[in-house]
Every structure is written in C-alpha cells, then in structure tokens.
C-alpha cells in the first residue's frame, strides 16, 4: 500500500484547519466533541488542530458550557481580534473606509472627500487613509491582514485591475499591485455592486438566500449577482453591467458609447436630467442631490415627485427583465436612490404586477438594502475578511 506523500498530508491538514476554523467562527462557542460531530473529523484530529490554533491565537477556551449529564464541556470560540481587515470604497467624489476584526465587527471608519486626477494622487490618498485606520487598530497578534477595495466600474477581479471607471480619470489601473506595494498586505479589488451584494447576503436582506441581485442605483447603475450562494462573475469577471442593457432603441447617448442604456433612465443621472442640475441646493455636495430631491418631494414638490416616479417606472421595467432572465428570489435596491424608496417602490411593484401572472415576476421580492449607505464598504471588508480567514 502506497503511503501518502508529505504534500498530500499537508493538504489534508490544511483542509482540516479550515473546516475547524469555519465551524468555530460561524457556530461557536462550541465544544470539541460537538466540533468533531459537526466537522465529521476524529476527536484526535480535532484536538490536535485546535491546540495548534489556540497556540497561534486564533481560538481560545472560554470555560465550561452546559451539559445534560456528567462533566461540563469546555467551549471554544474564535478570536475575532486576532487580526483585522480594511474595507475601502472608491467613489468619484470620496473614499470611505472601515476597519473590522475577523468576525466582521467594525472598529472604526472614516470618509474623505477627494478629487483625484491621477493614479499617483489616488494611491497617496488611499494609503494615507488606510494608515490612519492602522493608527486606531487595537493591538493584536496579526494586525492588518488584508484590504478589500470596491470600485464603481469595470473590474477584472482575478487580475485586480480596474479596466474603466466613470468619472475617475485614473482608470485603467492595476490597482491591486499598487495597493499591495504600498500597504504590504494582500488586496482584493472588486466591483462595488458585487461587494454590496456579498454584504447583503451575509448580513442584510438576502441572508440565507441562494439567488439574488443587488442593484446599485447611484449616479450610474450596476448589479451584483448571487447565484447558488456565491457571487456570479461571468467568464471574464465582468458580469453585472445591467445598467448598460439597451432598453430604448435609438435612445439617449450613454457614456459607454451606446444609446438607450438602462442607467440613462433609472439612476441619479436620469433624475438629474429630468430635474436639471439647478434643482440641487446651491453649494450642496454632489452626493446630496438625491437626498435634496427626496426631501422636496416629501414637502409636496410635484416636479420632484413626478421625476422620482418616472425613475421608479424605469427601474421597475428593468427589474422585470432581470426577473425574467435570472429568476432571483430577491432584488435588493441600494446606493443613493434607495433614499427615494417610498416613491420608487410603488412604481416597481406596478411594473411587476403589470406582467400578469408570470411566475418569474410574481414570485420575486424587491427590498431596499438594509444598510444601503454602507453596504459597499462593509461588503469590501467582508470580502477581505473571508480571504484572510481562508489563509489561517
């Protein structure tokens, strides 16, 4: 009988570590006996791996737990503060960052308004902001383990490259290489709608769902797709550019070069066009435009109300298409247009109801993102957290 080689043994041990780490992190506090039962690993294997992880600072004993009969078992828990990750959102007008531990608990956060025109300026701003986060990081064995970066634009996830980004002149850019060179920790670069979809799957409206779509309705319009419980990226990692579906033949010219793209009718860009830029409060930051429109609509401004309804109708028609193509359990609306939920939602429902008894439209649930202002940055941190824990 051929004995397993060293590489095979290391692979098995590595796999056992991950199984145990995941079980304690997601299901703890937990006893060693229960851990053996859930993981289907032998008690000896569990004991050996657990002792290693305790010695490395990732697990700890927290004392006896309840017992039906006999001696109370000693419970284990995952040490979330053994390390930290940063989540970073890069938007045209600002950088937003959050620092979390390995359980996803937020430690601190910050936002900086920016106007960068070059990759050097962007990198300097990013590194300064992450360095500031490091200054508020509690002492821990492993400190900063990784950074997740979410960008509004076309992102090659595998290569860590931003291929294009609207209103951000520094793209295209090999962002992962630059950030890793500056911060000396691994970085994950992803589309902002993917990051937000992942957050909604872990902690938001789409928890426990297998199939969902997150619509990031900001100045543009993008989507993150959850399929069979994982982010769907497509053959080259660029899936989700639903804002550039053609919904109006020979329609409005879009920045992508096409005409009649969905985002020209169902985004803040559309709202601005319908109302005109002068509608914005004098001197108000660009990101407050929708908030100002919503408040005006609540105050009885008919023009603001009608414009929001028009955008809602366009959103609804696009969601009908999404439901027909992807058959998700849920569509989650996030980003700045989620501020206008009370005006958009009735139009979306009317569009779905207008499809008669079609099962794909009647069975889809449409929700506002639970934390639509922070879903992107928290999702970026969650992506970095999952990647960091996978290396324990």
Plain-language structure description:
By secondary structure, the chain is of the alpha/beta class. It folds into three domains: 6-78, Arc Repressor Mutant, subunit A; 83-196 and 376-389, ATPase, nucleotide binding domain (Nucleotidyltransferase, domain 5, 2-Layer Sandwich), CATH 3.30.420; 207-369, ATPase, nucleotide binding domain (Nucleotidyltransferase, domain 5). Helices cover 40% and strands 21% of the residues. The chain contains twelve helices and 15 strands. The strands form four sheets. The protein has a five-stranded mixed β-sheet with strand order 6-5-4-7-10. A five-stranded mixed β-sheet has the order 13-12-11-14-15, with helices on both faces. A hairpin with a 4-residue loop joins strand 8 and strand 9 (161-164). The relative contact order is 0.12.
């Amino acid at each position: 009988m051929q004995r397993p080689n060293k590489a095979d043994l290391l692979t098995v041990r590595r796999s056992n570590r991950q199984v145990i780490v995941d079980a304690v992190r997601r299901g703890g506090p937990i006893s060693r006996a229960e851990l053996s039962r859930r993981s289907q690993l032998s008690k000896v294997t569990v004991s050996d791996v657990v002792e290693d992880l305790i010695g490395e600072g990732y697990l700890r004993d927290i004392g006896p737990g309840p017992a039906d009969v006999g001696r109370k078992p000693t419970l284990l828990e995952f040490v979330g503060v053994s390390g930290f990750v940063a989540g970073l959102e890069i938007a045209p007008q600002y950088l937003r960052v959050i620092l979390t531990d390995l359980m996803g608990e937020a430690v601190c956060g910050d936002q900086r308004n920016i106007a960068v025109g070059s990759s050097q300026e962007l990198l300097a701003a990013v590194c300064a902001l992450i360095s500031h986060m490091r200054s508020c990081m509690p002492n821990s064995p492993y400190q900063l383990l990784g950074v997740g970066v979410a960008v509004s634009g076309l992102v090659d996830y595998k290569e860590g490259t931003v291929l294009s980004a609207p209103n951000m002149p520094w793209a295209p850019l090999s962002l992962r290489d630059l950030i890793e060179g500056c911060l000396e920790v691994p970085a994950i670069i992803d589309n902002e709608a993917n990051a937000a979809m992942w957050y909604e799957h872990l902690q938001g409206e789409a928890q426990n769902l297998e199939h969902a779509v997150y619509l990031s309705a900001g100045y543009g319009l993008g989507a993150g797709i959850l399929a069979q419980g994982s982010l769907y990226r497509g053959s080259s990692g660029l899936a989700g550019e639903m804002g550039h579906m053609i919904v109006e033949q020979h329609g409005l010219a879009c920045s992508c070069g096409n005409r009649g793209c969905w985002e020209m009718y169902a985004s803040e860009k559309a709202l601005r066009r319908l109302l005109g830029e002068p509608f914005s409060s004098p001197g108000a930051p660009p990101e407050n435009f929708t908030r100002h429109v919503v408040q005006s609509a609540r105050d009885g401004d008919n023009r603001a109300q009608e414009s929001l309804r028009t955008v809602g109708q366009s959103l609804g028609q696009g969601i009908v298409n999404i439901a027909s193509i992807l058959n998700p359990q849920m569509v989650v609306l996030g980003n700045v247009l989620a501020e206008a939920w009370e005006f958009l939602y009735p139009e979306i429902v009317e569009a779905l109801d207008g499809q008669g008894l079609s099962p794909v439209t009647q069975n889809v649930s449409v929700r506002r993102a639970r934390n639509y202002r922070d879903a992107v940055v928290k999702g970026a941190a969650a992506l970095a957290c999952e990647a960091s824990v996978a290396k324990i």
